[in-house]
Specification:
The protein has 337 residues and is an alpha+beta fold. The protein contains 5 helices and 19 strands.
Length: 337
């Protein structure tokens, strides 16, 4: 199943990391994670899958350098700190070239086990003589346990294999099927009865997993702190949780005359399953002055874009450098209001 980049968390998920642990879960075999190898066999990498998964295999991607992992344990825990119980003990081979930066890595699969859990620790017992332990990827064969539960609840567990083989191992990804009628029909072998059951699973998955929890600006950022009245402002693009379609509002902290639509609905990224987006464009502020504005969720106004209000000064003509310096910070933290 496809990795989630947050499964390795911060550096505390690993012993003595010398390169980013997220590289293990970025679904990119050209990156790698390296940790300082300690001969006392206390080297480890911890994975928090965020929810319980049925796991039926693991994939380690490496090469033939001396830093390649040799013997390892896969352990399951009750939390990030354990306690840990053994799932499997295995050994890797030296495969491929020896330079991690020159090759995409060679996968080695280990499918001789089955377990269920959320927290897993990869204990690296030995390597092939190097000073470090290095891997390009660590991946798992598995499926979110809630998918199994919902398929059984709506009496369509017979679709399980086809659904997972189609790439839907994470409950957070199932919402995409709601926009892919042809794929639904294919998974259900053109059975209208099964399609209706699968749609219930999709809706339950969305209610469970695809809730709005944050709002943030894309790389385009907020509006510039100075602008001229009755002139169109740059487009604002806000992103949020994948799959969410909630309504959001552009608002100001004081009376202001505005032309343009101040409400919008988040649009899901059906093609790639990325963040949902909403755009505010063709906005004009008609009166001069200094204002603070924000973007918030309509159903839950406490969810505020970047957790702050943002400053903008509207003039009757283009603002000079001195005006911008005097306009203070571009944003104002909530606790400063």
């Amino acid at each position: 199943m496809k990795n989630k980049i947050n499964w390795t968390g911060a550096s505390g998920f690993s012993s003595s990391p010398t390169s980013p642990t997220w590289a293990l879960c970025d679904n990119n075999n050209h990156t790698f994670c390296q940790i300082l190898f300690k001969p006392d066999r206390t080297n480890f990498l911890v994975f928090d899958l965020q929810h319980e998964y049925h796991i039926s295999g693991a994939r380690l991607v490496g090469n033939s350098s001396q830093d390649m992992v040799y013997e390892y344990l896969l352990e399951k825990g009750d939390s990030l700190e354990g306690p840990w119980s053994l799932v499997i003990e295995n050994a890797c081979k030296l495969l491929g070239p020896s330079d991690y930066t020159a090759h995409s890595g060679v996968p080695q699969d280990f499918t001789n086990f089955f377990t269920t859990g959320r927290f897993f620790r990869l204990s690296l017992l030995s390597n092939f003589g190097g000073h470090f332990c290095a891997l390009s990827q660590v991946a798992f064969y598995g499926v979110d346990t809630r998918i199994v539960t919902y398929l059984k609840e709506f009496e369509c567990f017979h679709l399980f294999s086809t659904l997972v083989e189609s790439g839907y191992a994470h409950l957070s990804d199932v919402w995409v099927l709601g926009y892919k009628e042809n794929e639904c029909q294919s998974i259900c072998n053109n059975s209208n009865e099964d399609v209706e059951k699968l749609k219930k699973v999709i809706n339950k998955a969305k209610e469970t997993e695809n809730k709005l929890t944050f709002l943030t600006f894309t790389e385009k950022g907020a509006w510039p702190s100075g602008h001229i009245q009755n002139k169109r402002l740059p487009e604002l693009i806000i992103e949020s949780d994948p799959g969410t379609t909630d309504k959001v509002e552009l608002f100001f902290d004081s009376p202001v005359k505005v032309n343009g639509e101040l409400f919008g609905e988040l649009q899901p990224d059906v093609l790639y399953g990325g963040p949902s987006l909403v755009k505010f464009k063709n906005i004009k502020i008609l009166n001069a002055g200094e204002f603070y504005y924000g973007i918030r969720a309509v159903k839950n106004p406490d969810i505020l874009c970047n957790n702050s209000l943002h400053f903008i000064k509207i003039g009757t003509q283009f603002l000079g450098t001195e005006d911008l310096i005097e306009s203070t910070a571009d944003s104002l933290a909530l606790f400063d209001i």
